[in-house]
Amino acid sequence: MVRGRDEPDVAQWLPYDLTAQFDGLVPDRAELVMAALMVTLCRWTAASEVALAVADWRANSSDAPQVIRLHLDDRMTIGDFLRTVATARGAQATDEAVGGPVDLVVVSDHSDLRSAKIGFVTDVPDVAHGFVADLAAAVTELMSVDGALRDVRCIAPERRRILDSLAGAEVPAVAIDTMFLDQVSRHPHLVAVRDATVELTYEQLTQAADQHADSLWHAGVRPGATVLVATRRSVGEVVALLAIIRLGAAYSGFDDDAPPTRAQRIINKLAPAAAVVDAASTDHPGLRGLARVEVWRPGPDLGTCTGPTRPPVPTDPGRAAYVAFTSGSTGEPKGVVVPHKAVTRLALTTDLQMRPGDRVLRMAPLAFDASTYEIWVTLLAGATLEVYPAKLPSVGHLEAFLADREISVAWIPASLFRLIARSRPHAFAGLRQIVSGGEVVPHESTARMLDLHHGLVVTNGYGPTENTTFTTTHTVRSSAEVDGPLPIGRPIAGTRVFVLDRNARLVPPGAVGELYAAGVGLANGYLGDEHETTRRFEHFSPDVNERLYRTGDLVRLDPHGRLLFLGRADDQIKLDGHRIETGEISAALGRHPDVRDAVIVVAKRESKSVQLVAAVAMHPGADADPRSLRAYLSQILPSYMLPALWVVVEEIPLTRNGKVDAQILIDSALSA
């Protein structure tokens, strides 16, 4: 018997009726249970190697437990794997000693394991019970000795139903203009959009968009074309977007802060038919050579508009609505082509639904896909867009704007949410809902805001651009619901998600895997890049017969059926032969009472050596001593996971899009 650090929190017998089936089916009952345990552990942990500490299998012994280490090769047959286990059993394996407590124990009073009791040291009993159910399923699967090891999934039938339920409500595929015109007919005289000088009702917005669409048509814009929108946030910007949609074309937001070379690469890839410009952008060097159309401005003829002079365009939910550019691994921008149906499914999601009378903050850059949520979910619900005037928000100015415009719903990036919650917590008074994301939403800030503002709900929105702004959401209404890091939640409408292993096979509920998304929210692909589209979108799984997008994010299901975000799959590095998840280190640092925020980045020297860099932001008045923090980590993590370099910052630096600016942290650490 191998003893844990304490008596197990959960102990459960492997069902006797199952172990009774072993007789005559396999050569050795003990080897089958050990093999099942190894496979189940690998499926649950996404590992390809497992080490088991075992005492004498065949007789009582006071000898110290020894370690059997096996590599799980999914190319094996089940019979080959069972023979490998038998060989390891006979050899009694390695010279490794058991250096510490263990969390899982298999105990039997019989050398052939005709009865076996499983004990766990765990804070989550449901996880232990699920593991036993999956272990029992693995035992049954391993009895088919001629089968392939890769087909042993270790998922109990009743738990497979949990995986099948990871889907949002089914929604129809609808075009943006179809849903918008429905709101126009319902609420023609409600205000649709307002900036500092202009406001338009839904009826007026339609008229203005038709006027502007005629201008774009005469400039050469046709269905299927793309139009670059290079304007400041304004009513005119919204008019331009609706006009482009009404033409059957797609828009793309222009980032005038992008380096000139990147901006030119984007324009070359996009090949826009025209650019919508305002006074600030009309002379931008990146727009030279493009047909330019002045942004719409109100005129005396708005109320007398007789309708479009161009031919009508049939609606098509699968047609491109916009193109959003993200960074590619090669440094080349990738244009994500998003269809209408992917956008409209956002407006049909319960957690995101707005209503007539809501006043919604319009603040995100158009080149950032949070603007999709702000603009279209608002206009497809009969609510009012309130356009924030400043290019970059200051906390004080934003607080005044929220109060002056009586904003009820706002997208607030996670970094800004954290800052406001700490420095101006009353800024959110009057809001009905905050949707946040872009990075990990701070749960401490969430709990504080919910305690302070009764009636407020906070929604954690997760998702890559390739699945149109949001893939999953999790809404909390009370601080009592916040007992740790916020889940990313459940799939939104029209979305299905799958947690898969490195072979694109389903992992058991509760196990770590990579998140894949499917459904009407998927982008059409990458503009002009069939190879990358195939690599990221056409990844077919033996367990999932539909088009998938591979997010690159590691997640697991909690006992309540909610997804927990664990970090990036590519956050796993190999250092001195050890595989390390950087998210595990930052999470451990974040539990230190003096640490307000922490992140781990990887620095690569010219010698190609790799070093871990810890960046920490401390609570006010806390001692920022890296030596004490390192000592704290050394009590939790093995030595090879301790950061070599440390940098203390006031705030974790972020890029324009709200991501951690790793290069700034690396430069600071290396120059210290």
Write the SSE topology.
Layout: E1 10-13, H1 16-19, H2 29-45, E2 49-54, E3 66-71, H3 78-91, E4 104-107, E5 117-120, H4 125-142, H5 157-164, H6 176-186, E6 191-194, E7 199-201, H7 202-218, E8 226-230, H8 235-246, E9 250-253, H9 260-270, E10 274-277, E11 292-294, E12 320-326, E13 334-339, H10 340-347, E14 359-362, H11 370-379, E15 384-387, H12 395-404, E16 409-413, H13 414-423, E17 433-437, H14 443-452, E18 457-462, E19 472-476, E20 490-491, E21 495-500, E22 513-519, E23 525-526, H15 530-537, E24 549-557, E25 563-568, E26 572-575, E27 578-581, H16 582-590, E28 595-604, E29 610-618, H17 626-634, E30 645-648, H18 662-671
Parallel strand pairs: 6-15, 8-9, 8-10, 10-11, 14-15, 16-17, 17-18, 29-30
Antiparallel strand pairs: 1-5, 2-3, 4-5, 6-7, 12-13, 13-23, 18-19, 19-20, 21-22, 22-24, 24-25, 26-27, 28-29
Helix pairs in contact: 2-3, 2-4, 7-8, 10-11, 13-14
Label the structural class: alpha/beta
Tally of helical runs = 18
Residue stretches low in confidence (pLDDT < 50, at least 5 long) are: 1-6, 93-101
In whole angstroms, how far apart are the ends? 51 Å
Q: What would you call the shape?
A: globular
Radius of gyration: 28 Å
Strand order across the largest sheet: 16-17-18-19-20
Mean of pLDDT: 85
Q: Based on the structure, what is the oligomeric state of the protein chains?
A: single chain
Report the β-strand fraction as a percent range.
15-25%
CATH class bucket of the domain at 10-154:
Alpha Beta
Q: CATH H level of the domain at 10-154: which superfamily?
A: Nonribosomal peptide synthetase, condensation domain
CATH architecture of the domain at 10-154: 2-Layer Sandwich
The helicity comes to 25-40%
What name does the CATH topology of the domain at 10-154 carry? Chloramphenicol Acetyltransferase
What is the count of β-strands? 30
Largest sheet: 5 strands, mixed
